[in-house]
C-alpha cells in the first residue's frame, strides 16, 4: 500500500510486469510502453509536446525504476538502445566498488575521462528514450518461487482439462508410449486400425478418444 501511495507509477509497473510479462525472460520492453502503463497515454502525449512536463515525467520514471530495483525487480538495459549515458544515475552508481580504496580510484579515473558518471543526460535524451528498450526485469527469488508454484498449478489444471478432452487417456501419454516403442504415427495407426491423421489429432488433444478406442490403444501401447 505504501508503494502505491508514494510511487503510483512504480506500483502499476510492478503489477503489469508480474501479470503481463514473463519475468526474467528477454522481452525487449520499450520505454514508451512502460511509460504508458505507468502514467497513461495522456501524460505521455503531453510530455512529448511540453518540455517541462517531459522533464518531470522523466524524473518520475527514473525514480520509479529505482523503486522497482529496490524491491528486486532489477532492469537489464539494452546496451544498444539504452546505453549508460541515458540510463538513470542510480543504475550507473551500482558499479561503484564498495571497498574505499577501490572507490577512490574509481572516482579518480571517472574524473580524468572525457565524460563523467554524474554528467547530465545528453541533448535529445527524451527522443533517445522513445527508442530505448529494457531487455528484462530480474525477478526477486520469493516472487519467482510463487510464480513457479502458480505455473505448476496452472499446468495441472490444463492437464486435467486435456484429460477430459481425451476421455481419460492423455495425448501426451499416447505420444510418449509410442516413442518408447519406437513406433511412428503411421505404424501405430496401422496397429490400431486407424488413420495416421487420427493418431496425430489424438496426440495433439484435438480429438476425444472413445472408450473402445482407448482399450485398443492401451493394449497396443502397453498402457495400464
Number of DSSP E strands: 3
Taking all Cα atoms into account, the compactness measure Rg is: 27 Å
**Unreliably modeled segments:** none
Q: Tell me, what's the shape?
A: elongated
Class by alpha and beta content: mainly alpha
Query: Helical residue percent?
Result: 55-70%
Question: Could you give the distance between the termini?
Answer: 53 Å
Number of helices: 13
Order of helices and strands: HHEHHHEHHHEHHHHH
Number of domains as seen in the coordinates: 2
Biggest β-sheet, characterized? 3 strands, antiparallel
Strand percent estimate: under 5%
Give the strand line-up of the largest sheet: 1-3-2
Mean pLDDT: 80
Structural commentary:
The structure is a single chain. With 224 residues, the chain is mainly α. It folds into two domains: 2-139, no CATH class; 148-221, Orthogonal Bundle (434 Repressor (Amino-terminal Domain)), CATH 1.10.260.40. It has helices at residues 2-6, 8-20, 31-39, 41-49, 51-70, 89-93, 100-111, 125-129, 141-165, 171-180, 185-192, 196-203, 211-221, and strands spanning 29-30, 75-77, 133-137. Strands 1-3-2 form a three-stranded antiparallel sheet. The longest helix has 25 residues, at 141-165. 18% of the residues are buried.
What is this structure, in a nutshell?
This protein has about 220 residues and is mostly helical. It contains 13 helices and three strands, in the order ααβαααβαααβααααα. Helix 11 packs across helix 12 (about 195-205).
Topology of this structure?
Elements: H1 2-6, H2 8-20, E1 29-30, H3 31-39, H4 41-49, H5 51-70, E2 75-77, H6 89-93, H7 100-111, H8 125-129, E3 133-137, H9 141-165, H10 171-180, H11 185-192, H12 196-203, H13 211-221
Antiparallel strand pairs: 1-3, 2-3
Helix pairs in contact: 2-3, 2-5, 3-4, 4-5, 11-12
